[in-house]
Specification:
With about 325 residues, the chain is α+β, with helices and mostly antiparallel strands. It has two domains: about 40 residues, no CATH class; about 190 residues, Transferase(Phosphotransferase) domain 1 (Transferase(Phosphotransferase), domain 1, Orthogonal Bundle). The chain is about 45% helix and about 20% strand. It contains eleven helices and nine strands. The strands form three sheets. The protein has a five-stranded antiparallel β-sheet, sandwiched between helices. Helix 2 crosses helix 3, helix 7 packs across helix 8 and helix 9 runs antiparallel to helix 10. It is globular and about 60 Å long. The chain starts with a helix and ends in a 10-residue tail after the last helix. The relative contact order is 0.09.
């Protein structure tokens, strides 16, 4: 295998952490590179049969017609969810981006839903995110098992940005989003219902139908009456989130999904707690400003600075004299 092919494979997966891991593993790395150049066979997995209480060998052979490289990616990151009876199939790619790729999956029949959205992260985004330390200030850090990181070695590795530290930081960003989704969905916010987390992936509620996923709000044309009602609904969510100790910190019409009058606020890995992050109000005001800017096109005239301060005062029980400076 030549150098170009190897690097093309690693670049395609866009996952330097996995690349380092595979290089260390030697034979496993070579096996994956061979799979990347040849027809990838269906993944053999052992699915637990609830009737017999035994593991039954079966094939994870997704319907989605991916490239050879992407198929290897899907088998590695979504295969375990097939094995554990969360998904029955991968149907199509919903969204590909620098942060993550989202797939529409057929849900396993025991879940009682038709589709699941599987968000598979690209770890590189969390090492190149601008001012990522601003978002991490005061944050409780979790590992891939959703256990709080307390060890001195782990904290030092994160601070030094070592390979191990990058791995921990990546897991912490994923766990941060999953924890906020759990809390906000339980509180009644319009966020996707979280279903499972693990293996670089979050499974969550899918919004859309069999042929089309819900579009982002910025691509939707609304009537003025609908826009007014939707603006009020988004702001109710912003306030509800704040009341439950969450500032989205990157909210805009680009990460609000819209479907038949319904919405879901998505993409919360960078979300912060207003009581522990000293820059939380600036992030909150920016969120409110972006929402107001989008709805201004529909004749909704709001003062985002004043609105942000009013909502903050109603819901955050801390001295606002400094944060409003």
């Amino acid at each position: 295998m030549n150098f170009t092919t190897r690097e093309a494979y690693l670049d395609e997966l866009d996952d330097e952490l996995t690349a380092h891991h595979l290089r260390r593993k030697g034979k496993r790395f070579k096996k994956k590179l061979v799979r990347a150049q040849t027809e990838v066979p269906p993944g053999k997995v052992a699915r637990f049969d609830p009737v017999t209480q035994l593991g039954v060998e079966t094939e994870f052979n997704p319907t989605f017609s991916a490239s050879k490289l992407e198929r290897a990616w899907i088998l590695e990151y979504l295969g375990p969810f097939y094995e554990d009876h969360y998904i029955a199939d991968v149907l199509r790619q919903v969204k590909g981006g620098k942060e993550a790729t989202v797939y529409c999956c057929q849900a396993d029949e025991h879940l009682g839903i038709e589709f699941i959205a599987a968000k598979v992260y690209r770890p590189k985004i969390f090492r190149t995110l601008k001012n990522d330390a601003d978002y991490r200030q005061g944050r409780v850090m979790y590992d891939e098992e959703n256990q709080v990181l307390r060890g001195r070695r782990e904290k030092l590795a994160i601070r030094k940005r070592s390979e191990y530290g990058q791995h921990l930081l990546h897991d912490a960003w994923l766990a941060n989003e999953y924890q906020f989704l759990l809390a906000l969905h339980a509180a009644g916010a319009d966020v996707p219902k979280p279903i499972a987390q693990g293996n670089n992936t979050i499974l969550m509620e899918y919004l859309g139908d069999a042929t089309m996923p819900a579009p982002m709000l910025n691509t939707v044309e609304l009537s003025r009456d609908e826009a007014r009602a939707l603006f009020d609904r988004v702001m109710r969510n912003v306030e509800l989130m704040l009341r439950h100790n969450c500032v989205h910190a990157d909210l805009s019409a680009f990460n609000i999904l819209y479907w038949d009058g319904d919405i879901r606020i998505i993409d919360l890995p960078q979300a912060v707690n207003p009581y522990v992050n000293p820059k939380a109000f600036q992030m909150f005001e920016r969120d409110v400003t972006r929402v107001c800017q989008y709805f201004h096109r529909y004749g909704i005239d709001a003062n985002p600075r004043q609105l942000a301060r009013e909502i903050w005062r109603r819901n955050v029980r801390r001295d606002s004299s400094e944060v409003f400076l």
